[in-house]
Amino acid sequence: MPSTSADAIVVGAGVIGSSAALELSKLGLSVLVVDKAGGPGYGSTSASSAIVRFNYSTWDGVATAWESKHGWEAWDEHLGFRDELGLASFRRTGKVMLDVPIAPVARIVELFDQIGVPYEVWDPQTLRARVPGIDSGKFWPPKPVDDERFFDDAVDQLGGLYTPDAGFIDDPQLAAHNLAAAAQHRGAEFLYNRTVVSVERRDRVRGVTLSDGTRLSAPVLLNAAGPWSSGLNRLAGVGGDFTITVRPLRQEVHQVPAPSGYNQDGQFGPSIADMDLGTYVRPAPGDFLLIGGTEPECDPLEWIDDPDQVNSKVTSERYHAQVTRAARRFPELTVPNAPTGIAGVYDASDDWTPIYDRTDLDGFYVAMGTSGNQFKNAPIVGGFIATLIDGVEAGHDHDADPLRYPGRHTGNVINLGSFSRKRPFNKESSGTVMG
């Protein structure tokens, strides 16, 4: 049985795992990255809408997203290496979060003020003036699209919270490739089309065995396996002390032509977070919109037992629900008969806040619950992981005294205990992908 040794193993070559590989390599560690797919970012990363936004329910969540935005803007510098495939780009479009009771504007504005995120509070008139074709009606709470009440008249008018610095990354899979290429440039090795079938543990983690029989030895392992992360935890016998549950969740994102006037003078319109109707929209090149859902209570969630058995094609039912919601907000939106889009599997935590932490097995670390709302934080999540591993392996008790991460762009100091496996359930969460 062939064997290879390294300082650290990363399981998962998505945007999070690749970011961690880069930052661990910067520490001078030898890093092996394993992924069951054929390349970086082929899993849930490739299905990401890749929206860069800042509205989260906690101080550390907002500070993380705001720091990461600066990393995307300085992407070439962040990588320190020029990927031969080119670089993913940050498209600044702005974003409007429509008013909803579960995410009060006053609370988010308070966090923005503390952290330094620019914003504008729009009343209904401003919303209609700044986003042509939008219906500013309040329809709360979200209802099933086949409910006879779905098309009832609005009960009021709503405004929103606008952040001009929000936007999206034009190619999420390329962003993961950029990080992987930069990590390889620093010596990291990536092994594709390999699956971890066992985790060796004695007094601590000792390595893994792959599906082809290869044994990888390392005293440190990071679980960044996305939808497969819970399964890897079970394989390693960890997770019994977690207070937060992480499960695979099937999601769909659809693409339709943008309504007339949404994109103007060659400029993208803003992304819209519309929890009032249970959806979000994001502009896309070619005068299109991407449309996803925000897990409204009236629609069942598709929790998955085995990510390998998921239906990988979009469904007419989900397409009809999400695009009809968007058309309620934009009456001129055309709803094509044939659904177009992508289906993927999220790695979702029950409070929609990720877990970046050690575990009760020495040397075994996790970056879990990241899908849906953490792609945007990839520029600094790798730094979180490197800070954790460097500190804990040196003897720091992160559980008792959480490590901090100083943002080099903003100066904000982020408490990594906010992403602890043992944290209290985030009661401030919207209960949706918005966090």
Instruction: Work out the number of β strands.
Output: 26
CATH superfamily of the largest domain: FAD/NAD(P)-binding domain
Number of helices: 9
Strand portion: 25-35%
Question: What is the CATH-assigned architecture of the largest domain?
Answer: 3-Layer(bba) Sandwich
Taken from the alpha-carbon principal axes, the silhouette is globular
Major sheet details: 9 strands, mixed
Number of self-contained structural domains: 2
In the CATH hierarchy, what is the class of the largest domain? Alpha Beta
Summarize the helices and strands and which ones pair or pack.
Elements: E1 3-5, E2 8-11, H1 15-26, E3 31-34, E4 51-52, H2 59-73, H3 75-79, E5 90-92, E6 95-98, H4 105-115, E7 120-122, H5 124-130, E8 137-138, E9 156-157, E10 160-163, E11 167-169, H6 172-185, E12 189-191, E13 196-201, E14 205-210, E15 215-217, E16 221-223, H7 229-236, E17 246-257, E18 271-274, E19 279-284, E20 288-293, E21 302-303, H8 316-329, E22 341-349, E23 355-358, E24 364-368, H9 378-393, E25 404-406, E26 413-415
Parallel strand pairs: 1-15, 2-3, 2-16, 3-12, 6-18, 16-24
Antiparallel strand pairs: 4-11, 5-11, 6-10, 7-10, 8-9, 13-14, 14-15, 17-20, 17-21, 17-22, 18-19, 19-20, 23-24, 25-26
Helix pairs in contact: 1-6, 1-9, 2-4, 2-9
